[in-house]
């Protein structure tokens, strides 16, 4: 492939790694674990992989190695996230260090590649083309769910043919849930195939005490923050527009909050706060409009509003509506598809409960239609297709028009809307993500060498220099609970939402009134890869606040 000057320079970058992974590695096991909730149900569903201990790697004297070569398969599952190629590079280097004849096979376009026996061997020459690059294009990704024994058995056929002893699934909470199910099945039939997961999602909602952050979050937030900073500088130059900026984050507001911490917008909505305070759509509109009025009184008829992608699902009334829609469409999708487009709205209104029917009927036509579009493979509303930013901008304008007539507002209001999503998913990984991802992949190879299955690769203490990072693994069952999906209760990894009592939100809460009225914008600029560590290697503001209780660079 043709490379840019930056790619050529980045190819020479050697990711930093925990000292515990250098030299010979020994596994230290902790106490037995249990799932975060629904322990009896989860244990019953995962009898072979439940209750395993958290493990940690330490360096011991000796030369690492295995008597026999190790063949490993790797799958990229779900949406792209910066650093995926470095996870694969870490796996590759790890198994090659254990035995020079070890081989790594990548399954093409996600889990479907395992089921359909589509793969390619990843050689050293191929790996060197993709180190420290963004994207998942080395083998592609996909959203096929691994959930049936027929799929597992078909996949096992190619694994046996290639003598693959372990599969690493790189994905988010749903993909790692599938990894856990696959690990349990292969353990139950003594298939001789281990399954390891790696925590990927730019949304940042796959984390806990052992998984400090999901990879890609750092890079994506820095990309979005650069764009938001650029908009804010333009906003502060023209001084005539309010910019409504939606950022990714279907089920949690981690990206919106992190971008707010990096850029200091006038308004940032946090979905979890909306849910906790049981705010209505009208309440949110009033909050935004009030800030606009306050700034107009100072002659500032411009500003920025950051909106999390999944906001609509956190408004209590809307959440109940979407829940009923999900259940209804899960069982009546074929009948709904047969209804003519012009009659779909009335059809839905006639099928919902009285309260939800009234809410649905009150929505603008475009939003109502977007709520009934095809679900994703996991049965969720595709909230990225709901133009929340346009909905809020339109409703705020209507509110301000009303207040103007009532003599409460005499400023000028013009809005521009944006949605930042794909712009951040395949960016060249930050130094933090390049290091973290490589360490996650290398850790996965050590978990395989240690005979582990049903584990997720874990690297902690990542606000410290990389040498002091702590590598190990956490049983995936430890993160699971039972949730309703597509009308049925199913075991899934519990999503990590923004904690309103956590340090990141508390810091934001302490500053937002000042940011609302003042023009205290920060312009982060592009990601820096070369230079002093305080410029190039800083983790996210969220992680700094969670680990240290303070932000290093303001």
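Sequence proposed for the structure above (554 residues):
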């Amino acid at each position: 492939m043709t490379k840019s000057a930056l790619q050529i320079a980045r190819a020479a970058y050697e990711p930093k790694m925990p000292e515990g992974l250098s030299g010979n590695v020994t596994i230290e096991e902790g106490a037995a674990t249990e799932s975060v909730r629904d322990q009896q149900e989860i244990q019953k569903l995962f009898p072979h992989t439940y209750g395993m201990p958290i493990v940690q790697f330490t360096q011991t004297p000796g030369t690492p190695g295995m008597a026999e070569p190790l063949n490993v398969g790797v799958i990229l599952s779900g949406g792209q996230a910066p650093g995926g190629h470095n996870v694969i590079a870490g796996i590759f280097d790890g198994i090659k260090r254990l035995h020079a004849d070890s081989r790594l096979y990548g399954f093409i376009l996600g889990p479907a590649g395992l089921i359909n026996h589509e793969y390619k061997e990843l050689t050293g020459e191929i790996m060197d083309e993709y180190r420290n690059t963004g994207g998942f294009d080395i083998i592609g990704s996909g959203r096929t769910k691994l959930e049936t024994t027929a799929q597992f058995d078909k996949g096992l056929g190619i694994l046996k043919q290639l003598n693959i002893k372990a599969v690493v699934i790189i994905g988010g909470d749903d993909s790692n849930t599938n990894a856990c199910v696959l690990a349990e099945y292969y353990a139950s039939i003594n298939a001789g195939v281990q399954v390891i997961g790696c925590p990927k999602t730019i949304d940042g909602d796959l984390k806990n005490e052992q998984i400090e952050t999901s990879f890609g979050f750092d890079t994506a937030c820095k990309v979005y923050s650069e764009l938001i900073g650029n908009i804010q500088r333009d906003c502060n130059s023209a001084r005539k527009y309010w910019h409504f900026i939606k950022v990714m984050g279907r089920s949690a507001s981690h990206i919106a909050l992190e971008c707010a911490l990096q850029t200091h917008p006038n308004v940032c909505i946090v979905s979890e706060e909306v849910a906790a305070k049981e705010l209505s759509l009208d309440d949110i509109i009033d909050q935004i409009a009030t800030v606009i009025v306050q700034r107009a009184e100072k002659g500032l008829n411009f500003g920025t509003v950051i909106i999390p992608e999944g906001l609509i699902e956190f408004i209590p009334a809307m959440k109940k509506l979407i829940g009923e829609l999900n259940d209804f469409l899960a069982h009546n999708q074929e009948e709904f598809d047969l209804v003519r487009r012009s009659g779909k709205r009335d059809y839905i209104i006639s099928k919902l409960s009285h309260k939800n029917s009234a809410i649905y009927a009150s929505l603008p036509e475009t939003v109502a239609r977007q709520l009934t579009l095809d679900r994703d493979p996991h049965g969720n509303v595709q909230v990225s297709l709901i133009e929340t930013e346009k909905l809020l901008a339109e409703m705020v304008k209507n509110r301000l028009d009303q207040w103007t007539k009532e003599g409460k507002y005499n400023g000028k209001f013009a809005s521009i809307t944006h949605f930042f999503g794909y712009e951040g998913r395949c960016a060249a990984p930050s130094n933090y993500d390049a290091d973290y991802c490589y360490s996650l992949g290398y850790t996965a190879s050590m978990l395989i060498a240690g005979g582990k299955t049903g584990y997720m690769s874990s690297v902690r203490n990542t606000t410290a220099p990389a040498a002091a990072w702590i590598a190990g693994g956490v049983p995936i069952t430890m993160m699971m609970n039972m949730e309703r999906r597509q009308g049925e209760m199913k075991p899934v990894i519990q999503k990590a939402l923004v904690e309103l009592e956590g340090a990141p939100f508390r810091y934001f809460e302490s500053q937002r009134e000042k940011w609302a009225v003042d023009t205290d914008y920060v312009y982060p600029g592009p990601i820096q890869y070369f230079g002093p560590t305080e410029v190039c290697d800083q983790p996210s503001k969220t992680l700094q606040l969670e680990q240290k209780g303070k932000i290093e660079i303001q």
